[in-house]
Structure formats: C-alpha cells, structure tokens
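Example 266.
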Amino acid sequence: PKRVRIRHFQQAKRDGVKIVGLTSYDYLSAGIFDRAGIDFLLVGDSAGNTVFGYDTTLPVTVDELIPLTRAVARGARRALVVADLPFGSYETNPREAVHTAIRFMKETGAHAVKLEGGERSAEQIRHIVEAGIPVMAHVGFTPQAEHGLGGHVIQGRGEEGAEKLLRDAKAVEAAGAFAVVLEMVPSESARAVTEALTIPTISVGAGPHCDGQLLVWTDWAGFTTGRIPRFVKQYAQIGKDLEDAANAFREDVSSGAYPAPEHEYE
Ligand code: KIV
Ligand code: NA
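Predicted structure in complex with sodium ion:
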C-alpha cells in the first residue's frame, strides 16, 4: 500500500474526502487499523490514561511514548503515524520543541508530530516545520491544559469562544501546521473554522463539518471501562469480550475442560 502523506491530507480537503484517524499504542492494533484503511494513527499522550493508568496526561514523558510510537510505526504500512508531544516537552521555547520533535522522528519512525495549543504554540510549530517535520496542531479543548481551562470544559462556545477558536486555528495554519485537531467544540464553531482554513480540520468531538474524524481507539472499541464522552460512538465491546473470555478460561481450567486432548502433545 502507498504511504499516506501530508499532501494527501490537503488533497482530501480539496476533494471533500473525509480523513479518518484512530489512536494506537502498540504494534498489533496499528496493523489492524492500517489494514482497515485508517488514514492516520496518532500515538496520543492519551496513552497516559489508556496504557499507563494515570488520571491525566500530565505525567506522561517522552521516554514513555517513544517505545509505543516505535511499535505503532512498525505496524503501520500505509497509515501516516503521528507522534504526540507530551506535556513539558515543547512549551518552554522553540528550541526545546524542535529537540523533542527530532527525538521522535529519529527514534521512532513516526511521520509527523502533534502538539497542543493555538497562538501560544505557533512559534514552536513554525520552528519544527522549518526543521522539515510535519506538525498536526490541536486546539479547542487541550487536555494538557486541563487545569488552566478549569476541567473538561467545551471550548469555542459563544461569540468570544468561537472567535478565540478561529484565531488559534488561523495561527497554527499560518505557522505551517498541515492539519489541526479540534477537540470538544460546538459543531457550528468547528464549521466556521473548517470553512476559514485551507488545511484540514480533524474532529474529536467537533461535529460533522470537519474534514476528518479521530477517536481514541480504546473508547471507540469499548476497551475502556468507565465514562465515555458523549461524542464517542462505540463500534465494539472488546472490554466485555475479554472479561467474558477470561471468566470462561478460568472456569475451564477449574473444571478440567481445558486443556482438551486436541491441545496436548503426544
Ligand atoms: O492523546 C490523544 O489521544 C489526543 C487526541 C484525543 C486528539 O490528543
Ligand atoms: Na494528546
């Protein structure tokens, strides 16, 4: 399969073809999603919640994400692999941001990086892009800024919110981002941004008018236990399937039903 490249993102927006992404944190899921034709795989710092069991994404480190990103890159033959820059690895100054982005590109096989923030991150985006590394931006609700935003609050609401969202989106476009994630914003605000930009908008809970859709795979596949955001549609219940399987295995071992003769060596 031919590798998805950033020019295909621009082409998709021009042609009105939707872009589809999922997060991935390992080789097996990456291969499955890749074979299914998912266009890009984000190795999100959502791994903090889904892989490492933290309450937020704030503790996640570059050293934790690098091996996961490497595994995803090995599993993806067609999909564009995006490495998420964790909290504390790019905010201080553009030099730090370029340094972190280069580490991911050298050490993982990812094809692009993602970082959070609109106007506040524009300089970082500009310098990373100048180093030859594609950047996916991320505005609206930005989980690394959860405490600054006062919790899991919908962004881009009201006239002021919509204007700030548009300013942030235009800033990352001007800085050279090839796409921008809009997280948890009203559909109409996302529509206005999508119409105003030439780069594609990728919705995470930003409604149907964006140029693409992205979900955290463990939410989407029903792997996660606990509360799932309103915008997630669950396409499977693998958490329940695995629990049922573990129960069945335990019962079979207790009863002696497993292993059966066909599982034995002579
Ligand atoms: O870390 C992540 O999974 C993300 C997406 C939800 C946008 O940043
Ligand atoms: Na993230």
